[in-house]
Amino acid sequence: MSAILVRGLLFALVWWILAGGRADGWGVGLVFVVLALLVSLRLNPPGQGHLSLPGLFGFVGFFLVQSVRGGVQVAAMALRPRLALAPAQLEIGLRLPPGPATRMLTATLSLLPGTLSVQLEGDRLRLHALDGRLPIEAEVRAAEMRIARLFGVRL
Q: Are 130 and 77 in contact (CB under 8 A)?
């Protein structure tokens, strides 16, 4: 029961921040808070792991830095007079155990500019990259390490 309450409060806090603290958005906000809670409980039932607060702060910082860095990198590629991209599909073996941590990794990689998670089979992730010459596997390992810390998983 406490997991449901904590998640519900967290989603309500996110909505409150997105709504700019305004009270007139709670009619719609309540619907989305409940939907987010239901999806969260379906994807990650209570008792399937815990999140580390220091790991959460580390992951948020990592994600923000990587998002900005990746966005600048993709913009620089797009602004070159001649696009020098080398699209590639990579297959990378993951060290995270199956479950919420692996799902978070695949979602995170898809949100970072220049990469897209294509398929996950067991511990093998197929990833599309805008430029296969970049150190994509090293970036996957860095994200995997941050998510392992977030979920308290030893790699």
A: yes
Do 58 and 127 belong together in one domain?
Answer: yes
Give the pLDDT confidence score for residue 22 in this predicted structure: 85
86: helix, strand or coil:
strand
Number of domains in the chain: 2
Q: Which of 49, 61, 46, 55 is nearest to 102 (CA)?
A: 49
127: which residues sit within 8 A by CB, 6+ positions away? 89, 90, 91, 92, 109, 115, 116, 117, 118, 136, 140
Residues 128 and 59 in one domain: yes
The pLDDT of residue 92 is: 96
Residues 68 and 21 in one domain: no
Domain range for 10 is 2-43
HSE of 56, CA atoms in CB hemisphere, 13 A? 4
Q: How far apart are CA 46 and CA 39, in angstroms?
A: 12
Share of the chain above pLDDT 70, in %: 96
Question: How far is the C-alpha of 95 from the C-alpha of 102, rounded, in Å?
Answer: 9
Does residue 20 register a pLDDT over 90?
no
pTM: 0.69
